[in-house]
Design a protein that fits this description.
Elements (H helix, E strand, L loop, with lengths): L1 E6 L7 H9 L3 E6 L21 E4 L12 H16 L4 E4 L1 H9 L4 E12 L2 E2 L9 E9 L6 E6 L2 E7 L2 E4 L7 H11 L2 H5 L4 H14 L1 H15 L4
Parallel strand pairs: 1-2, 1-3, 3-4, 4-10
Antiparallel strand pairs: 5-7, 6-8, 8-9, 9-10
Helix pairs in contact: 1-7, 2-3, 4-6
């Protein structure tokens, strides 16, 4: 089985999610949208439908509504609609979840309650644990028509299901080294601005990435077997 992984920049990698997909028999095929994070308007051409069994949309340092990336975001929205209509299951993570919302009529806007660090969600299904899950965003999105809400917290919608597809606002893939690599780019400025200590978050993550592994595996197995039907 083949999984196309849309990495919107070189640091938005699948890490723990990718490792579990490989354990489940998927060969990962990464596609990097923006090679130079300092030049987000310059993007690679999105691939055509290539017979993949799964598409994974990773996070991004940008927001769906930013004018500087609207050219390739428009292309990605079409890419997602095309794959969903052809029956290819899609898993969207953070920015990827916002793309899925926008692709099917939802709205993505700046949030009054940004989230950085490990936090909880209120889940309506036992397959998605209440947390902690890693959060790193200042946006919120709405439920597209025909989708089912699965999780929410005071900052907004956290997960939804639509057909064979799953979108989550949080980052199940997260590891301490990945967080550290994000902070190296800008000193963790988003966290600092939100009053969160990046060093503390990285230290917490060394413990929580292991403690949350069972919840990650349970959610992904549920997605693959019951939602995507790819198990």
């Amino acid at each position: 089985m083949r999984a196309l992984v849309i990495e919107h920049d070189p640091l938005s990698t699948p890490d723990r999610v990718g490792e579990h997909l490989e354990l489940r028999g998927f060969a990962l095929e990464p596609f990097v949208v923006v090679e130079d994070i300092n030049d987000p308007e310059l993007a690679a051409a999105f691939p055509e439908n290539g017979g993949h069994d799964l598409v994974v949309l990773m996070g991004s340092p940008w927001s769906v509504y930013e004018s500087g990336i609207k050219g390739w975001v428009r292309t990605e929205l079409d890419f997602v609609r095309r794959h969903v209509s052809s029956g290819v299951p899609v898993l969207g993570i953070c920015f990827g979840a916002q793309i899925m919302s926008a692709a099917f009529g939802g709205q993505v806007t700046r949030s009054a309650r940004p989230e950085y660090g490990w936090g909880n969600v209120g889940s309506s299904v036992e397959e998605i644990a209440g947390g902690p899950w890693f959060q790193h965003h200042h946006d919120e999105f709405t439920l597209p028509e025909g989708a089912t809400e699965l999780a929410r917290n005071p900052s907004g919608l956290q997960a939804f299901r639509m057909g064979r597809n799953l979108a989550v606002q949080f980052h199940p893939e997260m590891t301490a080294p990945l967080i550290a690599s994000w902070c190296e780019v800008d000193g963790g400025s988003d966290m600092v601005e939100a009053g969160v200590d990046p060093d503390r978050v990285i230290a917490e993550s060394l413990l929580l990435q292991e403690a949350t592994q069972p919840a990650l595996e349970r959610m992904l197995d549920w997605f693959l077997e019951d939602i995507a039907g790819a198990g």
